[in-house]
Amino acid sequence: MSNVIQYILYLAILVVLAIPLGAYIKKVMEGEKTFLSPILTPCENAVYKIMRVKKDEEMGWKKYCASVLIFSGSGLVFLFLLQLLQGVLPGNPQGLSGVKWDLSFNTAASFITNTNWQAYSGESTLSYLSQALGLTVQNFVSAATGIAVLFALIRGFQKVKSKGLGSFWVDLTRITIHVLLPLNLVIAVALAGGGVIQNLSPGQTVPLLEPVAVNAEGEILDHAEIDLASQTVTVDGVKVEGAEIVTEQFVPMGPAASQVAIKQTGTNGGGYMGVNSAHPMENPNAFTNLLEMISLLLIPAALCFTFGSCIKNKKQGVAIFMAMFLCLAAALAIVAVNEQAATLQLAQEGSVNLSMIDQAGGNMEGKETRFGIASSATWAAFTTAASNGSVNSMHDSYTPLGGMIPMLLMQLGEVIFGGVGCGLYGMLAFAILTVFIAGLMVGRTPEFLGKKIEPYEMKWAVLVCLATPIAILLGSGIAAAVPEVADSLNNSGAHGFSELLYAYTSAGGNNGSAFAGFNANTVFLNLSLGIVMLFARFLPIAGTLAIAGSLVGKKKVAATSGTLSTTNAMFVFLLILIVLLVGALSFFPALALGPIAEFFSSIA
Question: Rounded to two decimals, what is the model's pTM?
Answer without folding.
Answer: 0.91
